Amino acid sequence: MYAPEFQYYRAASVAEAAELLSKNPDAKILAGGHSLIPVLKLRLAAPSALIDIGRIEVLRGIECSSGTIRIGALTTHAELAASAELRARAQALAEAAGMIGDPAVRNRGTIGGNVAHADPASDLPQVLSCLGAEFLITGPQGERRLGASEFFEGLMSTALGEDEILTAIELPEAGAGEGSAYAKFAHPASRYAVIGAAAKVAANNGTCTAASVVLGGLCPAPVRAEAVERALVGRSLTDEAIGSASRATAESLDDDEVLGDVYASAGYRKAVAPVWVRRAVTAAASRSG
Amino acid sequence: MKIPISVQINGRQYDREVEPRLLLVHFIRDTLRLTGTKVGCDTSQCGSCTVLLDGVSAKSCTCLAVQADGASITTIEGLAGTDGLHQIQESFWNKHGLQCGFCTPGMIMASQELLRCNSDPSDEEIRHGLEGNLCRCTGYQNIVRAVRDAAGSMEGGSQ
To answer: Is any Cβ of chain B less than 8 angstroms from the Cβ of A107?
Structure first.
């Protein structure tokens, strides 16, 4: 399959990419290409130009300092999955990155491209929402940062303006007594998430002091399972309590929003979602204090 | 607008001008006539287009040739040395790891990546490592045996 014709520009810096973007209003940013190239091949988009940011080295890498993890937009899923720092300080992110696609996909796909594409069957949007990530954006008006609930707007739709570039993602390191995990019901052929549950739990002597549970795969944008979070806080994190709290998952799922397809209907996804929530919370609890 | 690119494939330098929309797999197959690399699903799921791009596996149907400018690439044609087949090729042959052979170049390049990351994988790790490569003939049993055989034969040796 061939993409429609486009002009190709390779940017050497974020400033150059931003300038090219302002001169080519319907251009798209190219990083690893693992979301964009399939979209072009299927002719779901026909931008006049691609601006390749793939060689801007300052956009690559993971840095931890004073409790904050900063991840450059070009960092690949393979790098996320292999990061000892993430394994220790943002377990759910490293875990989810290692479940994306397959090894060759993880070698090329980037965190920035993944979240800018905002596919509801993706993994990282729900994980980054769960972990309280912020999205750093550069545009003609300078820099701005958005929280996950502002960044992800809906089906393949984000708050990123057409003249803006996502440069990095920041998230807090796991604090004392905190653990996080990701549980995924992967489509057996595509490996996309039919359901992806991300959980972060803080515990003190086995009692839950804070919980964050976010679901993907089910709805156009990540959904916070607030009823589950409320049911966990203040409880002892036993299997029974986690199972009981997980059953509240459906309260956060709007029937009109739940997606279905030929593989898994909306009703089926809604029915099995609590199982994946329970698995994610159980794993997060086992890593908490 | 054509873009000049310079790529090293299997140790040989190629300088060409390409359309920006040209996929790396078509550059390899149609421009350079290295047809060992296959196009299967063309949607980055089946893995028959897998090559090594700067040392790591990549699906060349989901990469533009212009993105590979300056890169060093290994395709299936680059594996065998002057002294015969590469050990992974030998093991696929010995263990009947192929039937029609269409997935085999990608399967072998993905196996190369797998064994680079893990020189002594379990059967489960082999299956996970090759989950981006589909075979419609063998049922995978003999592919797993072939990779295990290659791991055993390559132990301590060079890859």
So the answer is: yes
